[in-house]
Amino acid sequence: VLCVDPEGCGTVDMKGLFSLAATTFLLFGVGVGAAPFILETSSVPLSIENPEIKTIGKLEYRGGLKLQSENSKFGGLSGLAISRDGSVLWSVTDNGNWVRAKPLLDKTGNLVGLSEVSMASLLGPSGIAILSKKRRDAESLFRVKGGYVVTFEGVHRLLQYHGNKSPFLTPGFPAAAPDHIYDAHFNKGME
User: Fold this and answer.
1) What is the pLDDT of residues 66-93, one digit of tens each?
2) Distance between CA atoms of 28 and 117, rounded to whole angstroms?
């Protein structure tokens, strides 16, 4: 599902959706705490039964990727936010990590791969990685003025990260949320 805000930000629910071009990359992390890892990508058609299908109604499929890594911290991607200029993809994981990548596009603008991928732990308000499983289950993220907001379930809350170039290298601070989200059952909140 693609949602576009009035300022042009795209947000995608990534579970089972992300797929890219068939190549294996050794991708080195950028930024403090980011770790290098091997990421294997392969192209996925819109329809497995009929790979020639490129549209659904007025929507045009511009590429999809399947991502795989032997890194045990990679996976469980829960949300995708795209920088205002489209040059950076950000994602969060069920294990409390952030992932940053630059999309690779072919000459017609279709998604064919990723480069400059990095991953590290999301930081809590104290500036320390969120380690508790029930506190680190990040479910979505969205761009706001001056940074990004990440939603968590388990211990339901929203944390705001400031900055647009490397927001997740800074501590996340509590963001305003409707009171009823705090009453949700464990693992039944903002998924």
Assistant:
1) 999 988 888 889 889 998 899 999 999 9
2) 7
